[in-house]
User: What shape does this take?
Amino acid sequence: MVWKPHVTVAAVIEKNCKFLLVEEQTCNGIAFNQPAGHLENGESIITAVKREVNEETAWKFEPEHIIAIQLWRKNHESPSFLRVCFAGKVHAHDSDQVLDDGIIATHWLTRRQIAEKGTQLRSPLVLNTVDAFLRGESYPLSLLKTYLDLGH
Assistant: This one.
């Protein structure tokens, strides 16, 4: 059997010392996460993060840099995830937009409020990437290259 990690994207969005998180229904109950989701067939990683932020929060997102590229697995029996986490700004909120299935609400939370969610965080990567953002970890978007449908 071939091992294939799930490719996901996430966005750390900070405004006035608060971070945008989504409250979502998962198979394990209610969890808090950055706007995040899976890369879809035929889209670039940057297009994916813009789409996911919009679908989950109704905000338009402009990525400015990469915070981290993370390989995560909860335990040896769980699926693996290759997660590209971005930082950037939001604009043009559409308060009438219906959010993705499973999204209960969006919240602007401080780092302390996020840490207080503890086991309600979707994964340890939520707080990990907030802390990486606060430490100033930053990699250029030019690190990512897309070569879809590129023949010889």
The domain at 6-143 is CATH 3.90.79.10 (Nucleoside Triphosphate Pyrophosphohydrolase).
